[in-house]
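Hey, can you fold this one?
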Amino acid sequence: MVRGLQFERAGGAHTPPVASPSPKSLRWLIGVRLIVISTLFVGSLLIQVNTQLILPLKSFYGLILLSYGLSLFYLILQLRNIPAKIQAGIQLVGDLVVVTGFVYVTGGVFSPFSFLYLAVIVVAAAMLPAGGVVFAGLSAIAYGLQAVLMYYKLLPLPTSLEGVPVTPSATRVLSQILIHVVGFVLVAILVSTLTKSLRQAHTRLEEETERAKQFVALTQHVVRSVGAGILAADLEGKVLWVNPAGASILGIADADGQIGKPLREVMPLAEHNWGLIASRSRNQSIARVEGTLEHSDAKLGLSVDPLKDESAAVVGFVVNFQDLTELRIEADRDRMRDRMAATGEMAARMAHEIKNPLASISGSAQMLSSVGGVDATGRRLLDIVVDESRRLSGILDGFLVFARPGQSTHAVCDLSQLLNDCLSLLRRSDENNPNHELVLETPDDLVVLGEEHLLRQIFWNLSRNALQAMPDGGKLKITAERRDNTAVIRWRDTGVGMSDEIRHRAFEPFVTTQANGTGLGLAVVYSAVQEHGGSVDIMSAPGRGTTITVELPTSLGDA
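Sure. Predicted structure:
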C-alpha cells in the first residue's frame, strides 16, 4: 500500500550537494598519481634516449622519490581517523609542491611541464568546495614567485632541456606569468561550473528516480484498490489477471494461482456460456448482465469489454463484475461505473506520466556517464540506472499496447524488403555476435497486405527472440515463400528450445524465459498477426531449437 505519497513540481530549485571526497576516491587519486609519475619518468627517459636531450636526472630522481614517499604517507593517513577533506587538502598541497619542483628543474619559465598545474586545479575543483579557485590562486603564486626569483637570480638558474642555462628576460617572465595566471583562473572557473552542473544533474537524477518509483507504486495501488472485480482473459478464455477485489468476490484465496486457468473454472456461471460471451465481445461491449456462481449461488452483475492493443486488434476481453448479493452495491451501482471509467483513464495517464521522467532519468544518466570525473563505481551505478530505465520503459510500452486502442490502415507492403531491413538491423544489434550465422531466403517480389509498422514489429520481435535463445551462438535461418494466396515466413533457430508448458503459453502476455524480458514480445506478435487475418505456430523442444511459422494473406479477400 502506498501511504502519504507526496509529489514535488518538476523544474524546482535544486541545491547541489557539497563536494566531499570519499576514502575510496582518495585511494583512487593516489593510484592515478603513481601512474602519472611513473609515466612521466619513463617518458622523459625515452625522450632523452631518442632525442639526446640533457635532463636534470639527479633532481628529477629526487622528485620522483619524493612523490613515491608522499604517496606512502597518504596511504598511512588513510589508516588514521582524519577527515577526508583534510586528507584531500594535504594531497593536493603535496601535488602542488611536486609540480612546482618539476617545473623548476625542467626549465622554470621555459618548462614544458607547467600544464601539470591544471591537473591539480581540476582535481581540487572536483573534490573540495571552492577548491578550484583556491588552488588556481596557489598555483599562480607558486609559478609567479618561482619566475620572479629566477629572474632576480635569487634561485639558481636551471638548465633547459638542451642543457643551456636559462636566462629569462623581463618581458618573457611577465608574459609567462600573465598567460599562466589567466589560464589557471579560466580552468578553475570552467571546471567549477561543470562540477556544479554535474552535482545538480545528480540531484535531479535521484529525485526523478524516486518520483518514477512513486508513480509506479501509485498506479499499482489505484488498480488494486478498486472495490469492484476486474478479470482479464485472452481470446481462448484463459485468465490473464484478477484483481484482489475480484478474487474476494469469487472466493479465491490465491489470485495469481488462477492465471492460465479456463475462465469457466474461475468464474462458473450457471446462466451463461463463456465461449459465446467471448465471441460476442470481440466486436462489441456487452452491457451489464447478471449471473449466478455455481459453487456459491452468489449473484453477480457483470459487463464484458474487448481488450485491444494499440492497433485496435482484439487480444482478449475484460470482465467487470460486482456482487449483487450485497445491498450496498445496488445503491452505489452508478457511482461505481463512473469510478471504474476514471480508473482506466487514470491508469493510462499514469503510464504516460511515468515515461516522461524515465526519459529524463536515462538521458541524465547517459550524460553523467559520458563526462569525465566519474569513478568506476559511479559509472557502474549510472549504467544500472540506464538499463533499468530502459527495461521499465519497455514494460510501459507493452502495457500501452494492450491498454490503448489504435487505428490501423492496411496497404500493400514489400515483405522481402521488410525482411531484409530487419536482418540488417539484427546484424547491428547487441544480441548479434560473431558466433551467430544469419541466413535469409526470400523471393524478390513477395508482397502482403498489411500495416507496415506492425509487420516490422512482428519480424523484429521474432528475429530478436531467436538470437536471445542462442546466447553462445548458433544459426538463424529465415525463409519466405508464396503458397497460393498466403505468404509463409519461418524462423528456424538452433537455440535452447522450449518446454511444452512454455510453448503452449508462449503467446500469453507476461510469459517469458528471459531474465530481463517483459513477456510481451510474442503476445504482441500474436495480436499483430491476428490483426492481419493470419496465423502463427510454434514447434520447439528443449535443446533442439525452435521453428516459428507465420502465415499472412496476400490480398484483401483473405484478410
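The chain has 16 helices and twelve strands. Let me know if you want another pass with a different chain boundary.
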